[in-house]
Fold each of these.
Amino acid sequence: MRIHTLDELTPKGKRVLLRADLNVPLKDGQVTDRARLEVLCPTIRELSRAGARIAVCSHLGRPKGQWIAAFSLRPVAAALADVLGRKVGFVSSCVGSAAERAVASLADGEVLVLENTRFDPREEKNDPAMAEDLARLADVYVDDAFSTAHRAHASTEGVARKLPAYAGRLMQAELAALEAVLEHPEHPLAAVLGGAKVSTKLELLDNLVRHMDILVLGGAMANTFLAAQGVAVGKSLQEPEMQEKAREIIARAQQENCEVILPEDVVVGDHPASDISARTVPVDAVPADAMILDLGPATVRMLIARMAAWRTLVWNGPLGVFETPPFDKATTDFASAVASATEAGHLTSVAGGGETIAALRRAGVAGRLTHVSTAGGAFLEWLEGRTLPGVAALEW
C-alpha cells in the first residue's frame, strides 16, 4: 500500500483539515476517557510545530443530522486543550461561513475544533456538496482517524478525494501494524479470538483461517465450537444455530493448514459473578447446571508455552468474563505473557477492539504490546479482508 504521510508535507502556513476521532465518552459535560485524545496529540503537535493552521473535524455519537447539545464537541475541545497543554479554539459549525471565518483567523501553529460533523445530515450520506464545503476550509487533508476509516462519509472519504490527502501518525502506525499482521507477517502467525458470538465474526473467522497458522478460540465463542464437536457445555452461552457453521470453519481451517486450538480445561460457575461457585474442570466435564466463564489454568499454561514458537500475534476479544474476578485470570495471565514476549523481542503483537483494550488496561499491559489499535469496527473489517473507504482514499 502506498499512501502519503506527513513526511511528504510541508505544512507551514497551510490550512490543514485534520480528521480525528473525538468520539469520546462524556458524562455531565466532561470527557471520562481521554485515550483517543492522547493518541491524537503527536500528529497535532507535529503539524503545529511545523506552522500548520489546524482545523480538527470529527463526529460524536449518533445525532442523525440534528443539532443535539449532548453531542456537541465543545467540551471535547476543552479536554483536548488540557491534554495538549495549549489553547484550542472551537467554532459551533463544521462548514459554512462561520467555520470558514474561524479557520481564516488561525495563525500558524494554532488549533481549532469544528462542531460535530454528524450535525449535518449530509455527512453520513457522503454528500459531495458537504465534501466540497469541507474542502473549502483547507489546503490539505490529513486523516488520523483509522477508527472511522470503514465509513464512507463526507469527512472520511469524500473530502479526501478533493484535497491533497495524507495519513497522520496514528493512521500511519495503525496501517503499518495491520500490514505486519496480514500482509508481511513473520511466521508462525497466530490469532487469538474471543468474545461472545460466532455469528458476528463469520467473515473474520473465514479470513483468519486463510491467513493464520494457529487460531486460538476463547470466550463464549469457544463454547459454540466445543458444542459443535459434541462437548457438553452445560448452561454456557453458545449459539446452537451456528454449530454447523463452526464445523465448516474447522474443516476449512484443516484445508488451509491452520491449527484451531480449543480449551483443555475451563473455569465454571453458577453465573457470571464473583462467588464461591467458581471451579476448574476438564473441558469434557462441565456440569449440566454450570456455565463456562473462563479458560482454565492448564489451557493458559499450554498457550503460553506454545507462544514461545510464535513470531506474530493478532488478538481480538477477551478469553473469559474479564470484567468479573475470578473469571479475568486467563485473560490477565495471557496478556502478561504476550507483553513479556513482545518486550523480549520474540513476538510482534497487535491487539484491537473495545473489550480487548479494556482487558489489556485491566491487566496493566496496554502499553507493552507492539501495537494496540484504538479502532473497533475498522480493525475488525481490516482483519476480515475488506477495503476500508477512508484508507482507499489515501492510496495513490
Amino acid sequence: MTSRKKTPFTVAMFVFSLAAGCSTTSPPKDYTKFRELDPKAILVVPVVNRSVDVNVPDYFLTTISRPVAERGYYVFPVNLVKQILQDDGLADADMVHASNPIRLAELFGADAVLYISIERWDAQYLVLSTQITVKFKYILKCGKTGETIWESSETMIYSPQQSGGGGLGGLVAMAITAAVAKAVPNYIPLSQQANKNGVTKPHSGLPAGPYLDTYGKDKDMF
C-alpha cells in the first residue's frame, strides 16, 4: 500500500505536477482606470461560492491574501474583514457582493474592493484518473466611484500523476490513485497557484503595487 509520504497529494509533487494542468488565457486589458485610481490598500470581501462544497469559501480565503500582497498591495486581514461584516449585518457573501462598494471601502478605509466568485471547485472521477478543477472570477471595484477597474478569471485543472507499471497491476494501481484523489482531493495548492497566476500574469493580472520595487515600471506588461 502506498505510504502517505509518497502520496501524490503532497504539496511538492502537487505543485511540480501543475505542468500537466492548464490555465485560461485572457486578452490584454485596459489598465487606464486602474492606474488613475492607483490603489494601495485592497479589501478582499467574502467570496461567493457557486460550487457544491459549502466549506470552500473558508478554504479559499487562506489562499488569496498572499499573492495580492506579494504584488505590492496592502491587504486587509480577510478573517477580520469577514467578522466585521458579519457584525455589520452582512453575514452572507451574496449580500456583500450586492452592497455598495463605496460604503464597504469607507468602512475599512480601502482604495478598492476585490470581489471573487468560486465558479468551480470539484474532482471528477474518470475510472482510471481523477481531474481536479478550480475556477475563480475576480472583480476589483474602485472605492471612490464603485466602478470596475480590473477583472479577470482563472481556471486550473490537475490530474494526479499515475504510476504502477503496465498490466493488470498497473491498472489497479491507477484506479486506486484516482479513487483516493476523488475522495480526498487537495485543492489548496491548486488554488494557490491559480490565484498567483490570476494576479501576476502579464497583460491580465494586477500591475505591481506601491510596495513593490517594480511599481510603475511594468507598463509594458500591464
Amino acid sequence: MEQETMERRARQAKERWGQTEAYRQYAEKSRDRSAEEEQKIGAGLMSIFGDFDKHRDGDPKCDETRGLVMRLQAYISEHYYRCTPEILRSLGQMYAAGGEFTENIDKAGGAGTAQFVKQAIDACFG
C-alpha cells in the first residue's frame, strides 16, 4: 500500500474514532512502528482475507470459516486494538459496504470475499 494511502487512512481513522478506547489502543500499539512494519502487518491482514477465498462458495457457518473469523479477530486484537465481537460486527459491515474496504478485500480474496467475510462474522457473532 502506498505511503500516501496509509497516511490518508490514518487521518480518517483519527477523525472518526480518535476519541475511542480502540483508537487509543491502536495509537499505542502503532506508535513506534516503521512504515515497513505497518505494511507487513497490513499484508498479514490481507492474507487472512485471502484465506477466506477457499471457503467463499461454502457455508459461512462451517467450522473452517468460523476458525478464520476467530483468526481475523485475534490478528486485529494483536496488531491494532482489542477486537470485541461488537467491533468485529461493525468491521464486517464496513467490509461489505462497498468502496475501498470492499475493493481491497475482494482483491485479496476474489470477488465477493468482503460480503462473505461479513456473513461469516454475522454467523459467529450475529
